[in-house]
Design goal:
Layout (H helix, E strand, L loop, with lengths): L5 E2 L1 E2 L42 E8 L13 H24 L8 E2 L11 E5 L4 H5 L9 H8 L7 E11 L4 E4 L2 E8 L3 E2 L2 H15 L10 E2 L2 E2 L10 E2 L30 E2 L8 H6 L36 H4 L5
Parallel strand pairs: 2-7, 3-5, 3-6, 6-8
Antiparallel strand pairs: 1-12, 4-13, 7-8, 8-9, 10-11
Helix pairs in contact: 1-4
């Protein structure tokens, strides 16, 4: 891990879209004839089960060279590295919290019936030059809007956008169900294998709504300004600990605040799980899976971490389920 101060931003999606001159409501994907290749999928494939999963999107820009990371095994190698880091990190944390006798947890990845990772391909309708004109680099989170508005909006799934192109800012989450990691950030820093798992775990926790304002050390969507904790606001190059005191967001005893260890997107799953979609996107009276009260969660918070709540993000079930709206 580089000893550079790394700032991880939760994308603030309740801003005026007119604040970004690059913003465009058109999120129609681009499909080139050359993109149609053997083994490539443009839609989520049939699931092995209807459980909670994180689905991977391999995205390119309108003018990106196709490096075929979704079909040549490259992305699988990145995920393998992530799995190793997350298993080691959660095992250490779970020893202290005594979760299932110290069992390591990992992310539940979406897989096809053949057991391989289910990876979908999307080409974003923006060029690199257009993105660089954006004040925040994302043209009003064109990545999340493109993913959700083009059919990737299963409320039981979170979506990892793996951008195989350079991005002017850092990896970030847009709130449930989106988080983004790029092959190169700050337009110059190449993604390294030994930091990928760190990015995945940090941003996935954000996409699950964490950490929540009711957490003991909550600070600007994180837990403290700058420490060696994985969820600190600024990294010091040594971010390898996952809530080492088990008093904030992982393995804690505060029943009024969500424990990320209990998220249904980790496996093995907790005996007292919660659904991040319900907790971040729905009023409490509409919760069905989550049995916790979480009495402290809604103080000045309702819907703030629900990307589906944006007026320019649409899913066919939004009205039926009654999500929070911005």
């Amino acid at each position: 891990m580089k000893k550079t101060l790394i700032i991880f931003l939760i994308c603030l999606f309740n801003f005026s879209v007119n604040a970004d001159e690059c913003y465009d409501p058109n999120v129609t994907t681009v499909i080139l004839d050359s993109d149609k290749k053997l083994g490539r999928f443009f839609e989520d494939q049939p699931d092995v089960n209807d459980g909670y999963q994180i689905h991977i999107i391999y995205s390119l820009l309108k003018d990106s060279k196709d490096k075929e990371g979704d079909i040549n095994g490259a992305l699988e190698k990145w995920i393998k590295a992530s799995d190793k880091f997350i298993l080691e990190t959660t095992k250490e944390a779970n020893k202290k919290s005594k979760f299932k006798n110290g069992a390591a947890q990992n992310i539940k990845w979406d897989r096809r019936k053949d057991g391989k990772l289910d990876i979908s391909f999307i080409r974003i309708n923006k060029t690199k030059k257009e993105l660089d004109k954006s004040k925040w680099g994302s043209c009003g989170n064109i990545f999340g809007r493109t993913i959700v508005n083009n059919g990737f909006n299963n409320p039981r799934k979170i979506y990892l956008n793996f951008g195989d192109y350079s991005y002017k800012d850092w990896p970030y989450s847009g709130g449930f169900p989106i988080f983004n990691i790029f092959i190169k950030h700050q337009n110059r820093i190449k993604l390294e294998e030994n930091e990928f798992g760190y990015f995945v775990l940090h941003e996935a926790i954000h996409a699950m709504g964490g950490i929540f304002p009711c957490s003991k050390n909550f600070f600007e969507g994180h837990n403290t300004r700058e420490t060696s904790d994985i969820m600190s606001r600024q990294g010091n190059g040594q971010n390898h600990s996952l809530d080492p005191q088990n008093d904030d967001y992982w393995g804690h005893k505060n029943k009024n605040c969500p424990d990320m260890q209990d998220s249904v997107y980790f496996t093995p799953t907790s005996d007292t799980p919660f659904d991040p979609f319900e907790v971040t996107c729905l009023p409490k009276e509409k919760w069905k899976f989550t049995k916790h009260d979480f009495n402290n969660i809604y103080e000045d918070y309702e819907g703030d971490s629900c990307f589906y709540g944006r007026m320019d993000v649409n899913a066919p079930w939004e009205k039926e389920l009654g999500i929070f709206r911005e």
